[in-house]
Amino acid sequence: MALSKRELFQKRRLRNRNKIKAMANGRPRLSVHRSNKNISVQLIDDLQGVTLASASTLEPSLGVVGKNNVEAAAKVGATIAERAKAAGVEEVFFDRGGFLFHGRVKALADAAREGGLKF
């Protein structure tokens, strides 16, 4: 029996996350969630189970509310890099979830790298 689209997504997401957790060695995880309208990212410390920083296109302070594009994702990436540095984090593991690394996810990652995060 063929798996549904959602089940395939869940398999990709869990496979990616398990590999990251196995290699983490205490480094936080930069977890991305992309919907059709928005993109959000969290900096998660898996050892303590807490979110250290987050950013999203839903935040009015970023000025990209309702914009579903690569520029908005890049702005979110730059913002999370600033907030991560303020939290004292420089090295992270990038968790793209089950999403492919292109388009908005890639723009977010590139902007976070330019902001000073290493992954």
From TrEMBL:
Transmembrane segments: none annotated. GO terms for molecular function: 5S rRNA binding; structural constituent of ribosome. Keywords: Ribonucleoprotein, Ribosomal protein, RNA-binding, rRNA-binding. GO terms for cellular component: cytosolic large ribosomal subunit. It comes from the Bacteria. GO terms for biological process: translation. Coiled coil: none annotated. It holds the Pfam family Ribosomal_L18p. Part of the 50S ribosomal subunit; part of the 5S rRNA/L5/L18/L25 subcomplex. Contacts the 5S and 23S rRNAs. Belongs to the universal ribosomal protein uL18 family. HAMAP family: Ribosomal_uL18_B. This is one of the proteins that bind and probably mediate the attachment of the 5S RNA into the large ribosomal subunit, where it forms part of the central protuberance. This is Large ribosomal subunit protein uL18. It comes from Roseicyclus persicicus. The gene is rplR.
